[in-house]
Write a structure and sequence with these properties.
Blueprint (H helix, E strand, L loop, with lengths): L8 E6 L1 H8 L5 H4 L2 H19 L22 H5 L3 E5 L2 E6 L4 H6 L10 H17 L11 H9 L1 H9 L1 H26 L8 E8 L7 H16 L2 E8 L19 H6 L5 E5 L1 H4 L4 H15 L5 E9 L5 H14 L10
Parallel strand pairs: 1-7, 4-5, 6-7
Antiparallel strand pairs: 2-3
């Protein structure tokens, strides 16, 4: 008899608000934009997690540095397009959409990477970090064409998807072209990687997609997403909100990521994300039942890569974190309807 497939790993990450409430740590601009201080803050966080939750597998006793160029959090691309980035003590950085978005869309031109202060800063940080630590990770959370367009242009791009689809398609294609240029000329250079075709892997974050219909996505957004996807051998998809209306239109992206999603992509590995609202107030047995059902719906088990509670908030009890992290041990021998266990 073959050995049972391990129950998927459970991970928990913690929001800036959680860190601020529990340890008084701030994430203001001077922390985010100082590359050495940013790297050391990350080490401090992992060390503090080990002291608090090391017995259930979180954190590191002696964290190694993870130097990177993410001075803007997930807003690197918005900064590149000229958005103001606002830094808050207990939140991730936020981008302020550009004014006069309708006029900008009509005359949208890609930013010049050679003269961009954001790109110049990235290379300067990479040199400083390599000199100090011996390495620097050049990966950037690129999001996707629609993510970028909403951050930079606000609701105007969503209106254009309906009222001016040809304009919106052109804007989204420019966004996709800039994504590829940043990947090639920033990430690959800092990582000392040769640009090859197809490139190894990337993905799309489609956080605002639920604000447009699946048919609008197909007609207006998908062409840019397909162009971006076509440059990579492996591709992942991050979707926020209700998934099943978009399952069919996503087929063209051939992503390498619950029941509807699994039917649409029967052999695609999936990671499953939990929000605080889904776990708050639940007992250990209720959490176990929730995780078991998620894996049942997204199974077979070997295609579920992990379950992730993202950005735990200050109200998340330590007992909930511990219950989630230890759940795989309790659920390892639970059989599912698909015959695993």
């Amino acid at each position: 008899m073959s050995a049972p497939v391990p129950f998927p790993q459970v991970d928990v990450t913690f929001s800036p608000a959680w860190w601020h409430a529990n340890y008084g740590l701030g994430f203001e601009e001077e922390v985010r934009r100082d590359p050495i201080r940013r790297t050391e803050r990350d080490r401090d966080l992992r060390r503090l997690l080990y002291e608090r939750f090391g017995d259930v597998g979180l954190g590191e006793r002696d964290p190694k540095p993870r130097p990177n160029i993410e001075a803007y959090g997930h807003r690197f691309m918005a900064a590149l397009w000229g958005c103001e980035i606002r830094y808050l003590t207990n939140q991730a950085p936020a981008a302020v959409a550009l004014p006069d978005a309708a006029e900008r869309m009509a005359h949208l031109v890609a930013p010049d990477l050679d003269t961009s202060p954001v790109i110049q800063r990235a290379f300067a940080e990479a040199r400083q970090l390599e000199a100090h630590y011996g390495s620097c990770e050049g990966g950037i959370n690129l999001g996707g064409p629609l993510n970028n367009a909403v951050s930079v242009l606000g609701e105007e791009i969503l209106y254009a998807c309906l009222a001016q689809p040809n304009l919106a398609r052109r804007v989204l294609m420019v966004m996709a072209e800039v994504l590829l240029a940043v990947y090639d000329h920033v990430t690959c250079r800092i990582n000392h990687q040769e640009v090859v075709s197809p490139r190894p892997s990337a993905g799309i974050g489609n956080c605002p997609v639920c604000m447009i219909s699946p048919e609008t996505y197909r007609q207006v957004v998908l062409p840019a997403d397909l162009w971006w996807r076509g440059h990579f051998a492996e591709f992942s998809l991050h979707h926020c909100g209700v998934f099943h209306p978009y399952a069919e239109v996503y087929q063209a992206l051939r992503p390498a990521g619950l029941k509807v999603a699994r039917r649409a992509f029967p052999r695609v590995p999936m990671s499953l994300e939990l929000q605080d609202s889904a776990v708050m107030g639940k007992s250990e047995s209720e959490l176990d039942a929730l995780l078991a059902q998620m894996v049942e719906d997204a199974g077979p088990r070997e295609l579920v890569t992990r379950i992730w509670l993202a950005e735990a908030c200050p109200a998340t009890p330590d007992s909930t974190v511990r219950a989630l992290m230890t759940a795989p041990n309790r659920l390892q021998n639970i059989r599912t309807g698909k015959g695993q266990g």
